């Protein structure tokens, strides 16, 4: 349970980190919170020759509102996001999901950017960004690019990040009026990765009909699964148990999750439908101004 030998760097700026990544490329790994990378090193499933530690870079740790977006730096600790009053007010879906991520000890060290860049298909944060239509801010030697989640998340533990690039932040749209959100998941034990998780957002018009709805699921594919086609049936309808039942059925029918030792494909499909109904019901209640 010891990592392979590596050379260790502690850059003081994003520019220094990018220079190191540009020099060493595929032979380098980035260390953020270390909650995923360090176990991989100890099991020798990752064998980088160079480790670039971002913890000495001060300007990647922030939570602020910018031009209608909630902006969060990549090195912001998950526990800081969980406890942020600004997050609770401006992005309640993210606030609701944060306590589901691992345990407090993990969230004390784990970072927002580290989780997103690791891109575990059962993780909560990629599904949150996908459901809200967030943006991921990537910096490289030629400057900055802003990516939609469907372009950023490529496959199992794989993103569109180049070896010489860094994820430096994420932007999430602030909540709109008459919009409710909900995040629900099922795991074998609290703190385990979700067997299935569902992030939902639902907006009502002035007459109480659904003006917009979004769903993203975790644990049912190699990347977050956005159920755009299933939610279209809600637009123009008043929220109801029957409508949510139909969306859940459509979601379940379109998924083809893998089986593993924790759950079969059929169980995950069934669970996705059930959690979709629960998430939409809770989101609609909150959109109407109820407690949810």
Description:
With 292 residues, the chain is an alpha+beta fold. It has 3 domains: 7-53, Uridine Diphospho-n-acetylenolpyruvylglucosamine Reductase, domain 2 (2-Layer Sandwich), CATH 3.30.43.10; 58-173, 2-Layer Sandwich (Uridine Diphospho-n-acetylenolpyruvylglucosamine Reductase, domain 3); 181-287, CO dehydrogenase flavoprotein, C-terminal domain (Enolase-like, domain 1). The chain is built from 12 helices and 14 strands. A hairpin with a 2-residue loop joins strand 4 (63-66) and strand 5. Helix 11 (241-254) packs antiparallel against helix 12. The longest helix has 23 residues, at 265-287. It is globular, with a radius of gyration of 19 Å. The model has no long low-confidence stretch (mean pLDDT 96).
- Main β-sheet, in a few words? 5 strands, antiparallel
> What would the average pLDDT be, to the nearest integer?
96
Order of helices and strands: EHEHEEEHHHHHHEEHEEEEEEEHHH
Our measurement of the CA-to-CA distance between the termini, rounded to an integer number of angstroms, reads 45 Å
Count of domains: 3
Summarize the structure.
By secondary structure, the chain is α+β, with helices and mostly antiparallel strands.
Name some characteristics of this structure:
292 residues; alpha+beta; Uridine Diphospho-n-acetylenolpyruvylglucosamine Reductase, domain 2; 3 domains; five-stranded antiparallel sheet; four-stranded antiparallel sheet; 12 helices; globular
């Amino acid at each position: 349970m010891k990592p392979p030998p590596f050379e260790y760097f502690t850059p003081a700026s994003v520019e220094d980190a990018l220079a190191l990544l540009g020099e060493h490329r595929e032979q380098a790994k980035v260390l953020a919170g270390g909650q995923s990378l360090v176990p991989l090193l100890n099991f020798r499933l990752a064998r980088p020759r160079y480790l670039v530690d971002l913890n000495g870079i001060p300007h990647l740790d922030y939570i602020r509102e910018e031009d209608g977006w909630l902006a969060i730096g990549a090195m912001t600790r998950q526990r800081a996001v969980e406890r942020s009053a600004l997050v609770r007010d401006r992005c309640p879906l993210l606030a609701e999901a944060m306590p589901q991520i691992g345990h407090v000890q993990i969230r004390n060290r784990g970072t927002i950017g580290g989780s997103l860049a690791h891109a575990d298909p059962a993780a909560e944060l990629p599904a949150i960004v996908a459901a809200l239509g967030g943006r991921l801010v990537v910096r490289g030697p030629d400057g900055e690019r802003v990516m939609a989640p469907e372009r950023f998340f490529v496959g199992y533990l794989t993103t569109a990040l180049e070896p010489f690039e860094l994820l430096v932040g994420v932007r999430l749209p602030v909540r709109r009026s008459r919009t409710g959100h909900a995040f629900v998941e099922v795991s074998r034990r609290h703190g385990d990765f979700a067997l299935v998780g569902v992030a939902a957002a639902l907006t009502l018009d002035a007459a109480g009909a659904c003006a917009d709805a979004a769903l993203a699921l975790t644990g049912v594919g190699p990347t977050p699964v956005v159920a755009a086609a299933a939610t279209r049936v809600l637009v123009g309808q008043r929220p109801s148990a029957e409508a949510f039942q139909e969306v859940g059925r459509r979601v379940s029918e379109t998924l083809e999750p893998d089986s593993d030792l924790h759950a079969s494909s059929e169980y995950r499909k069934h669970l996705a439908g059930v959690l979709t109904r629960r998430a939409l019901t809770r989101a609609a209640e909150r959109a109407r101004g109820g407690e949810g």
